[in-house]
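Q: Predict the assembly, please.
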Amino acid sequence: MTTRPNLNIVPFISVDNMMRLVLHLGVERVLTELAAEIERDFRRWPLFDKTPRVASHSDVGVIELMPTSDGEMYGFKYVNGHPKNMREGLQTVTAFGLLADVNTGYPVLLSEMTILTALRTAAMSALAAKWLAPKGAACMALIGNGAQAEFQALAFQAVCGIAEVRLYDLDPAATRKCAANLRGTGLKVTACASAEEAILGAQIITTVTADKQYATILTDNMVGNGVHINAVGGDCPGKTELHRDILLRSDIYVEYPPQTRIEGEIQQLAPDHPVKELWQVMTGQIAGRADARAITLFDSVGFAIEDFSALRYVHGKLQTLPKSLAFSADLDMIADPDEPRDLYGMLLRKKAALVA
Amino acid sequence: MTTRPNLNIVPFISVDNMMRLVLHLGVERVLTELAAEIERDFRRWPLFDKTPRVASHSDVGVIELMPTSDGEMYGFKYVNGHPKNMREGLQTVTAFGLLADVNTGYPVLLSEMTILTALRTAAMSALAAKWLAPKGAACMALIGNGAQAEFQALAFQAVCGIAEVRLYDLDPAATRKCAANLRGTGLKVTACASAEEAILGAQIITTVTADKQYATILTDNMVGNGVHINAVGGDCPGKTELHRDILLRSDIYVEYPPQTRIEGEIQQLAPDHPVKELWQVMTGQIAGRADARAITLFDSVGFAIEDFSALRYVHGKLQTLPKSLAFSADLDMIADPDEPRDLYGMLLRKKAALVA
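A: Predicted assembly structure:
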């Protein structure tokens, strides 16, 4: 038995430290490396222990747990979705996650994941487009300019070489915020007055709106042949963004069908409507985009493996970056009695120490 | 909109602070109050959102998530079970948990739960015995003297008025540890050389062993009429402690049948073998112990509602005890941009602050 010091300690990445870590590496680099990390994990998809997320619904929102494991590491994310939060000055989505060692069950990392989820969602979108979008796509419509918008724009710039984003949101203030934040990134940013205007000349259309309803951000006649649609905002029961007729014209790619059929745009379709699994495109088992005229649709809902990839990515950075940068703090989270069967004795010794 | 300060902060109870909190209140009081808190929640059982725990199994152990909600609060526990850990100087079971506000999805408490689980498991056992054990039971056999043993002894003393515990473990060192830790508690402690000797004169038999196997801690001829069996250690697939014939002679009470049929002693029985739900005994919907000759068996596996009760209990203590006692620390866990849609802007402002 080797002595392992500080068994009780779990490294914790706070929101502030996550921002410092991301800024230290650079947002573009993080998005690119995250996309690569997710792709590596998608290529070994069959290895993972997969389950649709475990959701607890209420009238105003949902709280979900998203676990997965590759047999060596185990990860899960806690995430809420409360569309009404925004009006109360709160985040619609907040999250944190944990990585653990399958061999011992001991946690090895606790991390904020609100920022990390924003980054991994954008990296996942760009990764899907890398495999599905028409060759040479340079212009993206970005409909919905909320908390996820800038991350999407930057991921598509970093991973797919997008040069222009055309912004539209029901609320012009959101578009102004997004455009201002993207200043100096090298992206050409065009604020548009309607969804119709935003999609002019765009080879990629990203929809990422927040309201929980059967919305119709895009109608069938708006979508021409040859585009790639990145549908991010339709991600829970009762929340969709695309008209059903668009889905019927599209080649639909998903993360994990049992989850997407419940949560994605395809909740509007028959339960046996054919969809393709993105990981199989990456391994070459099935073809991606058929030709220049096809409409490809990534019906994104977010799957546990993406969070696993993101947690392992930041865990890896903690191992390789100088400790002096202090991107994590030590949490005393695991009871560690000197003798494992003597948990109560640990309490007694603490009592003696407090009296002394 | 009211301004809520420190939206980003989640109070965290470390292992050290949990020990300080428990010692401040006193172990006996905590066990008694926890049993009362669990009983209150069991009495409103139908209100809860219930699901069998979500388990990720490997060759050497299991990692589980145990969520539940009463519609106002949401709680979950992360817990591992690795019987081989003990031989490596690690805890077989470690745990932490989280409580969140259903209305916003925001976490309100993160807590160590290795110690808290030991306490709630013992409180639950004693609570079940309060309803099921023969009247005037004063002597308990305690077979398996590992990490959970002292907590069981103290809970049965505090909640059921047990005056004597008779200890047995395959490893005499475990029994010596347990007996030494129970010195000065007022319990009469008798170390026994066999399970047969331990159960002599005991009205309650608690089995709480750790090895993952179909074990036979008790055989049918050892168990006389009129006893209450508190079977704690049979709690996952492939891990049981009692001979099947004992089960067939017993009135079996469980927490949540869909989970117990997978994990409990009753995994040895037909899937439709009749069992009774403990919460219905507490609400008076069904009868408990029939007569003095009945064998009652609490087939304990641990259910999410017990962890929810425990988390809410310590959360309540944080609200009422003086802040100066500092039983929790502030974790910067939730991203809180000034404008909820401006998550990326928060990153930009951090960048500006770091440069300045």
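The radius of gyration of chain B is 22 Å. Chain B touches chain A through 86 residues (CB under 8 Å).
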